[in-house]
């Protein structure tokens, strides 16, 4: 494709060289430049791409897009100056891949908790309905039945457009995508045309990045502010910040709720560890998913599928056939009768939701043992809150490591301990080694007791000092209970 075609409908400030230059691809990471590539210099959170323009040219870039021209302009290289490189990148990526988001139904899910679950549930529902779709989530990317490993919650805008273009080629009509606050702030969804945006909830998270809750809220809201009038915005009517998301959007406004009146209303009728009996918009159905938070996730998925024109009873039949999302309230039972729940809960709200769901189901004759930690180099403020929640709502809590990264695991645990209330001092212990912590939980548990291992869920690694080591909670649990039962 020629530079002239890639820059269709994109304003420029100055050009040095010819726009007839052929472009083989678009990159913003100079390390990925290949012969004939267009390199765009973007000012990032950590580094400024303008510092790597010379490297990009040396590696074969034929076109350079930037906000400031380098002092020396090389012959036979086209330099194009723009006002905002990050914003321009989205338009370039869309043009290069044929504006794929305009040619399928793109659905974005944002919120603190539930993004992965709702996007994955929608993908599963539409597969059950016989409709081909794509999934862009934290866990994986899917195009039809093809699985591609995921790298970020919201991948970069070039990768997104490439995935959507491939989805179109494979005959997909729909694409379900997680939209993270980082992705919104770093313009990783720039110029994408969303048909529907869904909001799950918003609670304390990522304040290491956004600094204040108000800033975090504004970033989430900006996703809805940018929606066109042709889109639909669906928000959680039970969340006090749900209506804020809709304040300035041009999109058609819809709500879902379990507690208040809404366009899509749900009721939890029965629940146990095998599943739930629910009522959505007057229709009863059974699902193998369980827990109030899953009822909310299913209700949003139901609302979105309905807005996409699917018949309500067929959606509910499809939901009834779905299996649980990996690492989300995933249940296991040992030969000795100990009940294990593995869940991704890594925020105060998510941990509280899971514990509340377990406590509402259990008979109280069983003990609830919770194994959890908090990630290193991340939002420190939530640590003490999670310590308070876990020890308040569990029989015993074992504080351990969860991706300590470059921090001292012991220091992270000490910060979790600060939130433990005096009356709960006797209800917890600390074991920094996560495998040993799980081993202690199994050793302490008796038949019918419940062990919640929280924080990692679908993750299959433990990150320590920049190195990712194999660690899958589910495999570790199974390995330990088999070893200890001999």
Separation, N- and C-terminal Cα atoms: 65 Å
Helix residue percentage: 25-40%
Would you give the CATH topology of the largest domain? UDP-N-acetylmuramoyl-L-alanine:D-glutamate ligase
Strand order of the largest sheet: 9-8-7-10-6-11-12-13-14-15-16
- Uncertain parts: none
By CATH, the architecture of the largest domain is named 3-Layer(aba) Sandwich
> Count of helices?
16
| Helix/sheet category | alpha/beta
Enzyme class: ligase
EC number: 6.3.2.13
GO cellular component, one term: cytoplasm
InterPro entries: Mur-like_cat_sf, Mur_ligase_C, Mur_ligase_C_dom_sf, Mur_ligase_cen, Mur_ligase_N, MurE/MurF_N, UDP-N-AcMur-Glu-dNH2Pim_ligase
Outline:
By secondary structure, the chain is α/β, with parallel strands linked by helices. The protein has helices at 3-6, 53-58, 85-96, 115-128, 157-169, 181-185, 207-210, 213-225, 242-245, 292-307, 312-320, 348-361, 381-393, 409-417, 434-444, 473-484; strands spanning 14-16, 25-27, 37-40, 63-66, 78-81, 105-110, 133-136, 140-143, 146-149, 174-178, 196-199, 232-236, 252-257, 264-272, 275-280, 283-287, 330-333, 339-343, 368-372, 396-399, 428-430, 450-454, 461-464, 467-470.
Structure write-up:
With 486 residues, the chain is an alpha/beta fold. The protein folds into 3 domains: 3-96, Udp-n-acetylmuramoylalanyl-d-glutamate--2,6- Diaminopimelate Ligase, Chain: A, domain 1; 100-320, Mur-like, catalytic domain (UDP-N-acetylmuramoyl-L-alanine:D-glutamate ligase), CATH 3.40.1190; 330-484, Mur ligase, C-terminal domain (Protein-Tyrosine Phosphatase, Chain A, Alpha-Beta Complex), CATH 3.90.190.20. The protein contains 16 helices and 24 strands. An 11-stranded mixed beta sheet has the order 9-8-7-10-6-11-12-13-14-15-16, with helices on both faces. Strand 20 (396-399), helix 14 (409-417) and strand 21 form a beta-alpha-beta unit. Helix 13 crosses helix 14 (409-417). The termini are far apart. One of its GO terms (biological process) is regulation of cell shape. Pathway: Cell wall biogenesis; peptidoglycan biosynthesis.
């Amino acid at each position: 494709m020629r530079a002239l075609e890639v820059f269709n409908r994109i304003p420029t400030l100055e050009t040095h060289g010819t726009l007839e230059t052929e472009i083989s691809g678009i990159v913003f990471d100079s390390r990925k430049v290949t012969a004939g590539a267009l390199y765009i210099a973007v000012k990032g959170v950590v580094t400024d791409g303008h510092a790597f323009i010379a490297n990009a040219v040396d590696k074969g870039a034929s076109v350079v897009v930037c906000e400031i021209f380098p002092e020396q302009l090389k012959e036979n290289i086209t330099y194009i100056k723009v006002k905002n490189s990050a914003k321009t990148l989205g338009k370039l990526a869309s043009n290069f891949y044929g504006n794929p988001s305009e040619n399928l139904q793109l659905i974005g899910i944002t919120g603190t908790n539930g993004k992965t679950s709702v996007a994955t549930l929608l993908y599963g529902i539409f597969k059950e309905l016989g409709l081909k779709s794509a999934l862009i989530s934290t866990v994986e990317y899917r195009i039809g039945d093809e699985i591609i490993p995921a790298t970020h919650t919201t991948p970069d805008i070039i990768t997104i457009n490439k995935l959507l273009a491939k989805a179109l080629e494979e005959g997909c009509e729909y694409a379900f995508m997680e939209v993270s606050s980082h992705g919104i702030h770093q313009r990783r969804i720039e110029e994408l045309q969303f048909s529907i945006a869904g909001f799950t909830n918003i609670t304390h998270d990522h304040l290491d990045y956004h600094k204040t809750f108000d800033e975090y809220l504004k970033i989430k809201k900006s996703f809805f502010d940018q929606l066109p009038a042709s889109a639909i915005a669906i928000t959680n009517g039970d969340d006090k910040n749900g209506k804020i998301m809709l304040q300035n959007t041009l999109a058609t406004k819809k709500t879902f709720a379990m507690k208040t009146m809404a366009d899509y209303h749900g009721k939890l009728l029965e629940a146990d560890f095998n599943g739930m009996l629910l009522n959505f918009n007057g229709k009863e159905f059974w699902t193998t998913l369980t827990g109030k938070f899953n009822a909310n996730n299913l209700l949003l998925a139901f609302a979105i599928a309905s807005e996409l024109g699917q018949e309500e009873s067929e959606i509910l039949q499809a939901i009834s056939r779905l299996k649980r999302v990996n690492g989300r309230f995933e249940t296991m039972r040992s030969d000795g009768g100990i009940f294990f729940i593995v869940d991704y809960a890594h925020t105060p709200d998510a941990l509280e939701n899971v514990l509340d769901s377990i406590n509402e189901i259990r008979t109280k004759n069983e003990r609830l043992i919770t194994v959890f930690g908090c990630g290193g180099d991340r939002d420190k403020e939530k640590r003490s809150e999670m310590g308070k929640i876990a020890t308040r709502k569990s029989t015993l809590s074992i504080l351990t490591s969860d991706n300590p990264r470059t921090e001292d695991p012991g220091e992270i645990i000490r910060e979790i301990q600060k939130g433990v209330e005096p009356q709960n001092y006797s209800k917890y212990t600390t074991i920094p080694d996560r495998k040993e912590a799980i081993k202690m939980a199994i050793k302490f548990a008796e038949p019918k007791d419940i062990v919640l291992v929280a924080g990692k869920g679908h993750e299959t690694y433990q990150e320590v000092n920049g190195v990712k080591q194999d660690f899958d909670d589910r495999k570790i649990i199974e390995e330990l209970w088999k070893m200890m039962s001999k």
